[in-house]
Amino acid sequence: MIGTITAGAGGPEAAIHVRNVSRDFKAGQDTIRVLHNIELDIRAGELTYLVGESGSGKTTLISIIAGILWPTEGDVRVFEQDIYDLTDTQLVEFRLANIGFIFQQYNLIPTIDAAANAAVPLLARGMKLDEARERARIMLGRLNIADQADKLPSQLSGGQQQRVAIARALVHEPRLVVCDEPTAALDARSGRRVMDLLREVAVAEGRSVIIVTHDNRIFDLADRILVLEDGRITHDGTEMPQEG
User: For the whole model, what pTM was predicted?
Assistant: First the structure.
């Protein structure tokens, strides 16, 4: 039987508190439990990896932490807010104010330029277009692609598109950034550069950054690695556990 551990210590420095969280999915007439009684704290200013085989529950857990997927049981507090006590409208507003998302496939809008893509969270919060674009250009500059601001996604390389996606995730200054396989589509050099940028622009400014990854090329950059097996956290440390 796989052991389960409580990951992280509580206290005032913890930004995210996950308590007794389980999640079930329906498969025809059957109910499958994909997360089992997860207990987890994530601290501010920490780069945390969620690692495990496909189907281990990583994306489900990160989705619950980010307020995208409801838990079947348990509680989630993000910056002292019990996010599943919020109404749907309040939860959307909370995510817009506090959480940035970086996806493996970038999810850029193909018909608008890089600056407009990066400005999407600001526009969603009601900021005027000119101001939002200027803020987006500043963030693109911090990521060393200000000269690509007026180009469409199809005119950008994969690495440049990923930087636009990072700019979009950070432009509204969220306190939590969640990433789903951000380096999977990149070569080793580009993947390292993306992670260096996340440490420089996100983690160094006191944000909590949680990354779902299979990419063993970047394991050494984590502050903390959590391993999930069959919906349970089985390892919490600064390095991957030794096999055997």
Answer: 0.86
